[in-house]
Write a structure and sequence with these properties.
Number of strands: 17
Strand content: 15-25%
Largest sheet: 7 strands, mixed
Distance between the termini: 15 Å
Helix content: 25-40%
Number of domains: 2
CATH class of the largest domain: Alpha Beta
Bound molecules: zinc ion
CATH topology of the largest domain: Quinone Oxidoreductase, Chain A, domain 1
Number of helices: 11
Structural class: alpha/beta
């Protein structure tokens, strides 16, 4: 089959062995697959990416100097069932899947594996137990956004936000936008969003952010008083003395760049909760004493559960999350390398979809 192969830190369209479903697996045709920022990083810094994952106990233990086919945000159509499958979904059914292959020798990341090709190829092999059927009528383009939007759903769930809390989303790339959508779909907020890019701020507004801030003009940390969040211990105590529960700030770090955590520690009110969703792969520095003094709660989150994944697909299908504005481009296999270049400019793009049938 034809696929975009990551080879020697570049992307080439070439032949890849036709995938064959083994025990418990199905063969699918890729309908559409989103390009993820992690793929950009994995292409250019494969060794580092794999090393960090391995040290973190993750499953993405492929060999970056060998060929692989990226793509873990996909919608596909079932072509055939392998041995030992329950045939839960008929041939022709459109499905999404967690990008995980459950094999006899362990788990492999689909799109981060030397054997399991991801969605930048014409076909894939998926584990039947990981499949979720696309509800009738939902466009494949929108179903393909389940994976990145599930990241937002998980971050929001892990944040354990209360009805009295105020959310601040730092960074409005695909991850930040998924968090904003996840918050609004659950009726949480108000949501303040901050990003340097006007294009991304526009999308943040479209996804339902209540206040959108350009950090060049206004500090994202200057809004607390407007939302009644006490900033110091003294202010907090005053609220409590009046018999009220103080409002709390929940900050979602969705940038993943060195130095941002320190900025957040500086800017947040006492007793805030900080949820780290952005993946900074460099060694970072911050002053723990700031977090100690403010009694901050830092949480690091990753991925999503099977339940969160399926729930997200259904929320998209039911119109509770509108992902249409996030799709800013569409390419065939030959266009993927250029799309990787384009995604380096946040002004132009949020999500570019790969359609292997497109020439
Ligand atoms: Zn991703």
């Amino acid at each position: 089959m034809k696929a975009v192969i990551a080879r020697n830190k570049s992307l080439v369209v070439d032949d890849w062995p036709d995938p064959e479903p083994k025990q418990g697996e199905v063969l699918v045709k890729t309908l559409v697959c989103g390009i993820c920022g992690s793929d950009l990083h994995a292409l250019n810094h494969g060794e580092h990416f794999v090393d960090l994952t391995r040290r973190g106990g993750g499953a993405l233990t492929y060999e970056p100097d060998k060929d692989l086919v990226f793509g873990h945000e996909f919608c596909a159509e079932i072509l055939d069932h392998g041995p030992g499958t329950q045939k839960l979904f008929r041939t022709g059914t459109r499905v999404c899947s967690l990008p995980i292959a459950v094999t006899e020798s362990g788990v492999q990341g689909i799109g981060y594996s030397n054997t399991y090709a991801g969605g930048y190829g014409e076909q894939m092999v998926l584990s039947e137990t990981m499949l979720v059927e696309v509800p009738n009528g939902l466009a494949s383009d929108h179903a393909a956004l389940t994976e990145p939007m599930a990241v937002g759903a998980h971050a929001v769930n892990e944040a354990e936000m209360g009805p009295n809390d105020v959310a601040l989303v730092i960074g409005c790339g695909p991850v930040g936008l998924a968090v904003i959508a996840g918050l609004k779909a659950r009726g949480l907020g108000p949501v303040i969003a901050a990003d340097f890019s006007p294009g991304r701020r526009g999308l943040a507004e479209t996804m339902g952010a209540d206040v959108v801030v350009d950090p060049k003009e206004t500090s994202p940390y200057s809004q607390w008083a407007d939302f009644g969040v006490p900033q110091t211990s003294m202010e907090r105590m005053m609220v409590e003395m009046m018999g009220e529960t103080p409002r709390r700030a929940i900050i979602f770090e969705c940038v993943g760049v060195k130095g941002v955590v320190q900025q957040i520690l500086e800017g947040v009110p006492v007793r805030s909760r900080i949820v780290i969703v952005g993946v900074c792969m460099e060694t970072d520095h911050f002053e723990p004493a700031l977090a100690v003094t403010k009694q901050l709660d830092l949480r690091f989150v990753l991925g999503y559960s099977q339940e969160e994944f399926a729930g997200t697909l259904h929320m998209i299908a039911e119109g509770e999350i509108d992902v249409a504005p996030l799709v800013t481009g569409r390419v065939g296999l030959e266009g993927v390398a250029q799309a990787f270049e384009d995604l380096a400019h946040p002004e132009k793009h949020a999500k570019i979809l790969v359609d292997p049938t497109l020439v």
